[in-house]
Design goal:
The protein has two domains: 283 residues, Rossmann fold (3-Layer(aba) Sandwich), CATH 3.40.50; 158 residues, no CATH class. The protein is 29% helix and 18% strand. The chain is built from 17 helices and 21 strands. Strands 1, 2, 3, 4, 5, 6, 7, 8, 9 and 10 form a ten-stranded mixed sheet that branches. A hairpin with a 3-residue loop joins strand 1 and strand 2. The two termini are 24 Å apart.
Length: 499
């Protein structure tokens, strides 16, 4: 249902597999003007099976979330390995229509991508569990089309990882066939991929698949691709956030609890490099010296066990990686641990041939991040950065080692991953950003799965242009590439079959 006035249009959007609300937040921020008519979106609802994600969704977007499981009973059993409990209900098109209420103008769906992702082995992807998960893409499409068949949405969008076109090729064909039977035309060419970093102006590279289906009886104009922008530097985004352990953000902005040797390895990896660079390090030439030596001058002995956090006096010490050939900046002439210099043990990693190249990767402050994922361990691909904002002191039980390049090589916090995805530092109600529950792993998973709001906004605004042009009776023309082509003979055959 579209709300109309003389100078504005409000279109309704429904979000399936909404997660914590990145896609919905982008739609809510989208605005466009065409021939004096302003257009925007109103989110009808977000649908997700995860109750914590639904709680996040409502606090982040200010919109309604429906905690629903879209599995069929058979799919539920295959995925979970057991029957659902007595309170579980299989969603039908009729019930979905009743719960959502109004008919949407746009449906935006971002189904679970774990079964399609390259992060999951081919063997695991073929199991009944993940095949059932993948089938959600087909079932959710059917449920939505049937639920609103008397007033179909003008646009139906499916967003996912690029590998869905190979691992999920058969499922995509089923989805496209469904959509064509209901009268939609679909983009199906080389331009079906996009980089969220480029269309959203983010500080990360995030390549995604996007299928857009347009119903020509609702929209006869083309849908064009959004413009692209230069990807930002990590530092441009992270410098807007406070340093880790800011009390306003609690656990979500804490650093991972790393071993001392891991901190040393991070300090030795050059910015832009990864774990493979450790084999090139002449580790015998390095020592670690206290950056602040007041405690040593006062005669307070330094604890010898690095795992304690090197606490001396009332503050945790901050250290600097230093070449033996250089003059110490803190304890001049120190040549051994007893005089303030801690020797570096061999930092090289043994038996690492099977590791991916992104593991232990150290991002440059003035470069773009790689795709934000839910990884929490730097040995599994969690991102680290060379941060030039080095604390002068800390009372936290962490190890701060200033690298030779003068930066602090450290993991990114969960809050910083959210910021890189484009989430604001404050919630819809004005409180500091936080997520439901108390599991950092689940927070990172939800953040990694999110559609970046800025990328979603860019997609939504291109759709608004097409929809506003339809309202005025114009044929929209643009120099940008077309995402959805006009109806052709093949599409018309499907429509006649559907009738």
């Amino acid at each position: 249902m579209t709300t109309l006035s003389n100078h504005s249009r409000v279109y309704k959007a429904l979000h399936l597999f909404c997660g914590l609300g990145g896609g919905s937040l982008g739609f809510a921020h989208a605005q466009e003007e065409y021939r004096g008519i302003k257009g925007r979106f109103e989110n009808l609802a977000g649908i997700d099976v995860d109750p914590e994600a639904c709680a996040d969704y409502e606090r982040i977007t200010g919109s309604r979330a429906l905690n629903l499981d879209l599995f069929s009973r058979e799919q539920y059993i295959l995925f979970h390995g057991h029957e659902p409990d007595e309170n579980w209900q299989e969603i039908t098109p009729t019930r979905l229509r009743k719960l959502v209420g109004d008919c949407p103008d746009v449906v935006f769906t971002s189904p679970p991508c774990k079964g399609f992702s390259g992060l999951l082995s081919e063997k695991s992807a073929k199991t009944k569990k993940y095949q059932a998960l993948n089938q959600l893409t087909v079932r959710s499409t059917y449920l939505t089309l049937e639920a609103f068949k008397d007033d179909l949405p003008g646009l139906f969008i499916l967003e996912n990882v690029p590998r869905i076109t190979s691992r999920g090729k058969k499922l995509l064909e089923e989805i496209k066939q469904q959509l064509r039977m209901y009268g939609y035309v679909i983009n199906d060419d080389k331009d079906q991929y996009h980089d969220c970093g480029e269309i959203g102006g983010l500080a990360q590279r995030r390549k995604r698949y996007l299928m857009i289906a347009r119903h020509p009886e609702k929209l006869d104009s083309f849908v064009y691709q959004p413009p692209t922008y230069k990807v930002k530097n990590i530092g441009d985004v992270l410098e807007t956030a406070p340093l880790p352990f800011d009390e306003r953000y609690n656990k979500i902005h804490h650093l991972s609890n790393l071993q001392w040797k891991t901190w040393v390895r991070l300090a030795l990896i050059p910015a832009g490099g990864d774990w493979r660079d450790l084999d090139k390090v002449e580790w015998e030439k390095y020592r670690i010296v206290p950056e602040h030596h007041s405690s040593i001058e006062e005669g307070v002995p330094l604890e010898s066990n690095p795992s304690t956090g090197f606490k001396s006096g009332t503050h945790a010490a901050i250290y600097r990686m230093q070449n033996w050939e250089e003059t110490s900046r803190t304890v001049t002439g120190a040549v051994g641990p007893n005089n303030g210099a801690l020797c570096v043990n061999d930092p090289r990693l043994q038996h690492q041939k099977g590791r991916y190249s992104n593991k232990w990767q150290l991002l440059k402050w003035n470069g773009a991040a790689t795709t934000v994922t839910g990884a929490g361990d730097i040995q599994s691909g969690a991102q680290s950065v060379a941060d030039p904002r080095v604390p002068k002191e800390t009372d936290r039980d962490i190890s701060i080692i200033i690298s030779e390049d003068g930066t602090w090589h450290r993991p990114l916090t969960t809050l910083e991953l959210a910021v890189l995805q484009g989430f604001p530092l404050t919630m819809h109600d004005g409180t500091p950003f936080e997520l439901a529950g108390n599991s950092d792993a689940r927070w990172r998973e939800r953040i990694g799965n999110a559609v970046p709001p800025a990328a979603s906004q860019a997609i939504a605004e291109t759709m608004l242009r097409t929809m506003l042009a339809q309202e005025t009776g114009d044929w929209l023309m643009s120099a940008d590439p077309i995402w959805v082509q006009p109806l052709d003979e093949k599409e018309n055959d499907y429509r006649e079959l559907g009738n």
